[in-house]
Design brief:
With 65 residues, this protein is α+β, with helices and mostly antiparallel strands. The strands form two sheets. A two-stranded antiparallel ribbon has the order 1-4. A hairpin with a 6-residue loop joins strand 2 and strand 3. The termini are close together.
Length: 65
């Protein structure tokens, strides 16, 4: 699985970071999300799925490879 982020849609709410801090972080200058681990291991996928579900801007996708 691969994580994708539509940066222009991101509203810098930080929900993804709270759901999956191993996979997401936020830029200091504007709070926009960044992906730390584009292809997270199986043990991180539950957190990523939660981040996808709670993102207020629907800016995150989990894509099957």
């Amino acid at each position: 699985m691969r994580v994708e982020l539509d940066e222009p849609k991101c509203v810098a709410a930080g929900q993804c970071v709270m759901a999956s801090p191993e996979v997401f972080d936020q830029r200091d200058e504007d709070g926009v999300a960044v992906i730390l681990e584009e292809t997270p291991g199986e043990e991180l996928l539950d957190g990523v799925r939660e981040a996808v579900a709670i993102c207020p801007a629907a800016a995150i996708r989990l894509v099957e490879r």
